[in-house]
């Protein structure tokens, strides 16, 4: 039996074509984790450090034995104490958005229920009032948002309308005689649902409703509606049903809301972009209902960015725990789990994706902060793609982390299982991922110049000889970027041709028939952009510190090779690569995994995780420290 195990171990670790077992720590020679951490930390490093230090407060110590109601109450207490520290203000949403986001992002490392409870209150409710309201709204509501005297909710989603926000059914009719709006839920399908914070605690809600003034429909507008009075009693005409336990995120009290002809003052309308005067005259500087609606939901970009960053941060936590454990845990003699190629394959492409997505978020934040009107479309496309890619990747990475830790990954105290459940909601809120990827693709197809360029490139397809020179091209980031760009161009050209070939008004039907490829195009664009940005970041980092730039370039090579390997089937079908090229991609991924995963406690992958800057009191998982002490008195 012992001989069989030894043979099996040798087979599991045998290098294949194009692979190397000797790279070891050479890929990160001279790398200082603190310098890489400083580069990754986009902004507000001091603020983040102060918040991390504050989260040592015993109130934030995990307790997996609480009941549903106890956990919700604890989450509210945690949020109150956090906001009392005045690390940031709701007014930073407009005046200092980087500070605002940095404060919220920091909470994801502590508890996701707390992060989402805070995000709904500050970003979705408070941010909507900031962006769509005017001074009278800011003066009336923002102090209570900052202090949590007015716990806030965001009332967009309805039972019958999730992604189709333009089709919501909640109504708002203006009564000129009384100078009031009448908010009503005309059917059960129109009830607001999944409204975070409304089940128990919410006192104020930003409600999306179809506005009618003087018999004329003006499209969805947003109103501030009281749900509960100062004593916590539900307001007349409002009915709220607590949605109860969920598969995760149980510190957030989601609810379903109905409005029975609730009257609110004329000032309840958030009127930065549309107003109704005392006589009942409606006015807006934006004449088109569609454009006005687009402006009103434009603030959702901040929410998507926070959700995407939260997913990336969850991957950082999960990977740090799983890699620390596997670099210290032997199996079959003295061989460490992380020394097995199968284990490296589970974790290290995900590590590269985490860096790629983090750097993509870094770029997106810069675009948003710059505030250039010319970047608006890029921000919309990129934020949609990044949110979908980050959260879908998070599902896969955390599942691999959980499996890579065996039974220990199933234990709540080791965090990975809890994070899997708590973050699972992120693939469908702040935009369903499949819908977002279709939105990305459709936006690309609206760019006539890009479609023409893609069609020209697809008409003269390039073949990539990845197997040449011992497989080196398969690990060359520039080659991989060109390959991913060719994949994207073929998908654009194919979808555009299908739409152009449709007779009459059947373009939408033709695109519907291409939905699988439309989603694939969204992925192709996002992955190409991530790799392109990663290489640009590596070049910028190299200017200040060569070792930091080299580390990012190494990760870019693994990211590009693993993305191309996953897309091998369509790349083979299109003739972009041959069978030997697909094998070269496999070899490149394996070689990169070997280089980053070997060395036990000195494995380069652990150095890279150190650059995430997660303090031990927030990492917390026993297996991330000395697993041999688990259960010891």
UniProtKB/TrEMBL annotation:
Keyword Flavoprotein: yes
SUPFAM superfamilies assigned: Acyl-CoA dehydrogenase C-terminal domain-like, Acyl-CoA dehydrogenase NM domain-like
UniProt domain Acyl-CoA oxidase C-terminal: residue ranges: 476-624
Domain of life, per lineage: Eukaryota
Domain (Acyl-CoA oxidase/dehydrogenase middle) ranges: 153-262
Cofactor: FAD
GO cellular component: peroxisome
Keywords: FAD, Fatty acid metabolism, Flavoprotein, Lipid metabolism, Oxidoreductase, Peroxisome
Family stated for the protein in its record: Belongs to the acyl-CoA oxidase family.
Name the record gives this protein: Acyl-coenzyme A oxidase
Organism: Raphidocelis subcapitata
UniProt lineage: Eukaryota, Viridiplantae, Chlorophyta, core chlorophytes, Chlorophyceae
């Amino acid at each position: 039996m012992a001989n069989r195990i030894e043979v099996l171990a040798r087979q599991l670790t045998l290098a294949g074509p194009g692979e190397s077992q000797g790279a070891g720590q050479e890929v990160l020679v001279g790398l200082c984790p603190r310098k890489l951490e400083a580069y990754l930390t986009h902004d507000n490093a001091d603020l983040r450090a102060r918040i991390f230090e504050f989260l040592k407060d015993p109130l934030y110590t995990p307790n997996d034995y609480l009941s549903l109601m106890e956990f919700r109450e604890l989450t509210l207490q945690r949020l109150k104490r956090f906001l009392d520290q005045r690390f940031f203000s709701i007014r930073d949403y407009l005046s200092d958005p980087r500070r605002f986001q940095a404060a919220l992002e920091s909470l994801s490392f502590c508890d996701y229920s707390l992060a989402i409870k805070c995000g709904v209150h500050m970003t979705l409710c408070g941010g909507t009032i900031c962006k769509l309201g005017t001074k009278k709204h800011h003066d009336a509501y923002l102090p209570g948002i900052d202090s949590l005297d007015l716990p806030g909710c965001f009332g967009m989603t309805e039972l019958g309308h999730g992604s189709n926000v333009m089709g919501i059914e909640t109504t708002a009719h203006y009564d000129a005689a009384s100078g009031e709006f009448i908010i009503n839920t005309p059917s059960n399908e129109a009830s607001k649902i999944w409204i975070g914070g409304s089940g128990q605690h919410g006192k104020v809600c930003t409600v999306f409703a179809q506005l009618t003034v003087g018999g004329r429909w003006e499209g969805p507008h947003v109103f501030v509606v009281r749900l509960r009075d100062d004593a916590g009693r539900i307001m007349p005409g409002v009915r709220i049903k607590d949605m109860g336990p969920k598969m995760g995120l149980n510190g957030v009290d989601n609810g379903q809301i109905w409005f029975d002809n609730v009257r609110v003052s004329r000032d309840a309308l958030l009127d930065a972009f549309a107003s109704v005067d005392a006589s009942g005259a409606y006015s807006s500087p934006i004449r088109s209902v569609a454009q006005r609606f687009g402006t009103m939901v434009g603030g959702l970009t901040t929410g998507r960015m926070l959700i995407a960053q939260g997913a990336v941060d969850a991957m950082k936590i999960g990977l740090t725990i799983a890699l620390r454990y596997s670099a210290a845990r032997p199996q079959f003699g003295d061989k460490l789990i992380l020394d097995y190629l199968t284990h490296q394959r589970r974790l290290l492409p995900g590590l590269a994706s985490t860096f790629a997505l983090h750097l993509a978020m870094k770029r997106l934040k810069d675009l948003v902060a710059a505030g250039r009107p010319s970047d608006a479309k890029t921000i919309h496309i990129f934020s949609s793609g990044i949110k979908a890619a980050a959260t879908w990747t998070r599902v896969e990475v955390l599942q691999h982390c959980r499996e890579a830790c065996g039974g220990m990954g199933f234990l709540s105290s080791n965090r990975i299982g809890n994070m899997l459940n708590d973050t699972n909601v992120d693939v469908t809120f702040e935009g369903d991922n499949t819908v977002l990827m279709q939105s990305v693709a459709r936006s690309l197809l609206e760019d006539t110049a890009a479609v023409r360029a893609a069609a020209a490139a697809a008409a003269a397809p390039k073949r990539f000889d990845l197997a040449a020179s011992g497989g080196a091209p398969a690990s060359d980031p520039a080659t991989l970027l060109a390959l991913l760009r060719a994949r994207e161009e073929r998908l654009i050209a194919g979808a555009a041709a299908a739409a152009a070939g449709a007779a009459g008004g059947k373009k939408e039907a033709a695109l519907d028939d291409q939905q699988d490829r439309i989603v694939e195009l969204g992925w192709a664009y996002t992955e190409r952009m991530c790799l392109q940005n990663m290489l640009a970041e590596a070049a910028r980092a190299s200017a200040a510190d060569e070792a930091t730039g080299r580390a990012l370039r190494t990760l870019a090579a693994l990211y590009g090779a693993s993305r191309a390997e996953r897309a091998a089937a369509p790349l083979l079908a299109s003739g972009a690569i041959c069978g030997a090229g697909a094998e070269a991609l496999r070899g490149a991924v394996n070689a990169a995994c070997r280089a980053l995963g070997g060395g036990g406690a000195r494995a380069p992958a652990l150095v890279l995780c150190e650059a995430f800057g997660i303090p031990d009191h927030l990492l917390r998982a026993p297996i991330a420290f000395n697993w041999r002490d688990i259960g010891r008195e």
